[in-house]
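Form 7-S
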Amino acid sequence: MTEQAEWSEATMPDQRGISRRSMLAAAGTIAGAGLLGIAAPAAQAAPRAATPWYPSAKFGIFIHWGVYSAPAWGDAKHAAEWYLYAMNVTDPARGLGTREHHLKTYGADFDYDRFIPRFTARRYDPRAWVRLFEQAGARYFVLTSKHHDGFQLFPNPASDRHSVHFGPQRDLVGELFSAARDSHLRRGVYYSLGEFYSPALGTPPRNPYTGAEIPYTGYRPVSDYVTQYEHVHLKTLIDRYDPDVLWADGQGYHEFGGGPIFRPKVWDWRSEEILDYYYRNAANRPVPKSVVANDRFEYAHPDFATVEGDNKTYVLRPDPWEACLNIGKSWGYNENEDPANIKSSARLLQLLVEVVSKNGNMLLNIGPREDGTIADWMSSRLLDMGRWLRINGSAIYDSSPWQRAMDGDVCYTTTRDAFHLIPLRWPGAKLTVPGDVPIDGRARIRLLGGHSGPLAWTRTADGVVVDLPSQRTDDFSEEFPAVLRVSTR
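Output:
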């Protein structure tokens, strides 16, 4: 992932155009609101979705795993997966922590590519990963097939810089996709279009301390980066693994104190060509399948917009979008992670509820260790989310937004047969919501996970007041969201 603020939201246009594969979403925004005697506004009457599955999925797992998982170190300015670039930064204002750490720990002659043999995947158990993702309540995953350091986790004819030839000597993408084949999970791959340093982009890697040009392990010279390298990689991913999601990154020109990266200033990824190939591959088969691509391919009609990080003010959008965010600061595994940056399970669920109420999906990242194990502080949070979703998932999956996403700390979602009030924290003995919330005389309000019958409610001058139990009955602390289901039955 890209770690700079200006490289995520600020450079990304607000994509609201209709994809050429768009169709009306079948989710029940109107059904849920109409059941309770209220008409949804025209703007929400026909939310657009690129495919039937994606806007209903709501929750996916992002996986950042690669050579950077071996040094596993980030500083206050740079996340761990940016280790290769951060060790080349010479501008103190941009942060020298990684550069100084590398020199002290490994020495000036230890090039980044010497970490490749240390990326072993020796305890990688893709079936265990799939079980964890299922237990977390995820509906899809996206694995980094190539991050900005150019190391590929899959074999291909364009390069030997990959995990079958070096390091683990395993097809890491293929193993995870195979393990997930019989699961309910949709499968996706992340691919960095550009790279930090590449001879083919005019930016060969150099020793950060001497400036001497150094070999790019496994690189095969090409004269046309896009045709002979990038598009070959992407076609290999499409043909070999048949992904449901293509997730691009690393598409822009940038200079963050360690030299220009990703691409020259004037550049064309020719993404329409590769995405036409992707969509045709999905359509031209006996049983066509639904696939999506994000907005970082720099093409005309993305299937969903990407909002990176949780430091944004999320807004209700009419078209599909995705909040990709992290449990901590780094996307790759970071032994130097500041505990203060690690979000609690309750906070992650609050973010999930807010994103879903605003018509988005959450793609929550984990960063496995170099050996393929997942830290307990990551897996425990995923399991907490799954435990909450098993009780409250009917308000999340297959839901649509109401005309407003939230009032204060209370979010709203609709489904075919219900409207949901979701306070982000336990509100106490009473919950008051505005009077225009679709609750009429026929409404019955139940607390999901509760052991009591319908809750008493009254309409007052202040709005609708719902009487709640004296304490939670769903085994979650008061910091976790709660779900009140409003229906006529």
